[in-house]
Structures are given as structure tokens and as C-alpha cells.
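Sample A.
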Amino acid sequence: MLIPNRFIKLEFNPATDTLFIEWPNIHDYTLYELRFMLTELIDTVRNYDIEKILANSRKSAVTLPEQEYSVIVNQFAKDLSTTRLQKFAGLRPALVTARKQPKRLPMR
């Protein structure tokens, strides 16, 4: 069952009581929309009495500074804790990191 939302794709499976979320791109110029979307998401979790969320952020990009994003995510977590939600799982992109090669010390 698709749940109408203007900013993100929400799909609810009543058989498993799981809400599937396609996480959006998050940029500094979308902060107002992000806060509005998270408030609507909390309301959806309450209204549908959702117990599980699976959030897919594999295709989303976050360009906010880490500190700002952390404040928003922490508030979202606090708001979710006031609902009946029992489990939250996220799919994230695979992190590709280059290994740092150790510096070689000059031979004496």
C-alpha cells in the first residue's frame, strides 16, 4: 500500500507492519522541506501505528555539514522514540575508501 507523500516514497506492508522509505537527497537548501518531511513521517508512523521501518538511502546524497545533519537525525530519533516503533533498519551505500599507505621513513 502506497502512502501519499510529496517528498519521499512511502510503502506500507500491513502483513509485516513495515514501512519502506526511499530516502531523499538532502542538501542545505532543502532543510525546510527535510524538517517538514520528517514531521510528516513521524505523523505517518503514529497514524498507521507502524512498528518497523526499513529506510533505503543507497541512492540518496547528503551534502549538509555533519554537525547540522547530526542535530536533525538526533531529533528525528527522539521523535521516533515517542511512537510505537520497535525496529528501524537502514540500507546505506557501500562505502568505498582508499586505504592510506603508511609513510615510509627515510633510511639512515
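Sample B.
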Amino acid sequence: MVIDGGENVDEDLRYQAISRVRRKIDDELTTDVEVLRENHPELYEELRQVVCDPEGINTSSEGE
């Protein structure tokens, strides 16, 4: 994986990948979260739990 900075990863390529992820977080993900919060509070809560408490992820298919 480029972002983890393995032995054979070009630093410029790594920087570009990290920048793309940051841009997506700032632009796209922020908008998606707002849409979920306003229109699908249950899905928003599921997302919040996974992001804020990844150790408590429920791997069952409940609710699908």
C-alpha cells in the first residue's frame, strides 16, 4: 500500500496519495456525512459508530 510508506514506495507518490485522501475527506466525505445525518439518521449513526469506535464494530449483517 502506498500510504503506509513501505520499502519500495516513492515518497512523491505517497504524498500524492495522501493528498487525494485528504481532499476526499474534506470535500466528498463531509458532504456525504451531512446528507446521512439529515436524511438517514440510522445510517449516520452506524457510520459514526464505525469511525469513532472501530473496536466496537458489529460484523453481523443485522439491518441489511
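B remarks: The two ends are 30 Å apart (CA to CA). The mean pLDDT is 83.
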